[in-house]
Amino acid sequence: MSLERQVRAKLASKRNPDQEKEAQVWIEGVLGAKFPPGELFEDVLKDGTVLCQLINKLKPGSVAKINSSGGQFKMMENITNFQAAIKAYGVPDIDVFQTVDLWEKKDIAQVVSTLFALGRETYRHPEWNGPYLGPKPAEECKRDFSEEVLKAGQTVIGLQAGSNKGATQAGQNLGAGRKILLGK
């Protein structure tokens, strides 16, 4: 099996049809329109127009011009504009797919992951009251401890210190020792 075929098989195995369906239902709910029947999920998203419409619904005016015709570079520009808009919306760079992941259908699982990151980000925008995608992100949980509680905690030896009720790792040797030979 060639390396390219192995890579494609590995990427295809990362795809989760349930997550793709969930993302599709969310997009349809936000846009108020269904995907064309019989078309694949990635084919509907490929030209970037649906993605640009999605971010414009979440935050109006995010993508000023959506290219609906033109060559492949105009369609890829839609994807790039979507990526820039979701970064401005608050989605971290690490969660954003590469343009070729969608355009060449190289990693649709990463595209779905980006859609889930965008769906999670909608929870942080109080102006959005439409449907949400994915779990709600955790919020800060600040705690204030009294000086008495903090001092009591200083006397406790945590299990990270390498001790567990008298049992330690002292004296354990795994594998051969390291030998340094000088002069050879």
UniProtKB/TrEMBL annotation:
Superkingdom of origin: Eukaryota
GO cellular component: actin cytoskeleton
SUPFAM superfamilies (UniProt xref): Calponin-homology domain, CH-domain
One Pfam family named in its UniProt record: Calponin
Record GO terms (molecular function): actin filament binding
PROSITE patterns on file: CALPONIN_1, CALPONIN_2, CH
InterPro entries for this protein: Calponin-like, Calponin_repeat, CH_dom, CH_dom_sf, SM22_calponin
Chain ranges of the Calponin-homology (CH) domain: 17-122
One of the protein's GO biological processes: actin filament organization
Family: Belongs to the calponin family.
Protein name as annotated: Transgelin
